[in-house]
Amino acid sequence: MRVIAGSARRIQLKTPAGMDTRPTTDRIKETLFNILQSELYGCKFLDIFGGSGAIGIEALSRGADAAWFIENNKEAVSCIKENLERTHFSDKATILNSDYQSALRSLEGRGEVFDIIFMDPPYQNGYEKRVLEYLIGSELLDKDSLIIFEAALDTEIGYIESMGYTVERIKEYKTNKHVFLRKT
């Protein structure tokens, strides 16, 4: 796994050992960031369920001003730290080694507002719905904030619009999809 484009292009990234994380493939990451490119420059990026940190690091490489990573697994947090050092982005990043609920409350308490929020939670556990429920009532979003979540292809998303979001796009791949949404 590597950084695809930008200032850290071609730098190899470490991934956590074991099956607790499933890194986004280079091809899917490239497609995702081609879609996001016009919104990245100067943005504040939040990577929830950060894993190796590859998504937030790609955002930094392509021009995001700062990235926050939420990750509960200590080995994955170590991996994110190492990858930030490899790419020289440590000074632009904040890692919250915490469960997502505590981390989101902490960020809201600090008055953070994000331009792009990305999450890649464990599939089929309903985490994306719980995060979306929290975000819709939080001050972490403004009217222009973009939220993207990765999910298995068969993940039901019919509830999203009733929560107060508008689905802008769904990009499907062989086994998973990215859902792009904004607050209505």
From TrEMBL:
The keyword Nucleotide-binding does not apply. The keyword Glycosyltransferase does not apply. Keywords: Methyltransferase, Transferase. PROSITE patterns: N6_MTASE. It comes from the Bacteria. One of its GO terms (molecular function) is 16S rRNA (guanine(966)-N(2))-methyltransferase activity. Transmembrane segments: none annotated. Pfam families: Cons_hypoth95. CDD domains: AdoMet_MTases. Its EC number is 2.1.1.171. NCBIfam families: 16S rRNA (guanine(966)-N(2))-methyltransferase RsmD. PANTHER family: METHYLTRANSFERASE. This is 16S rRNA (Guanine(966)-N(2))-methyltransferase RsmD. It comes from Velocimicrobium porci.
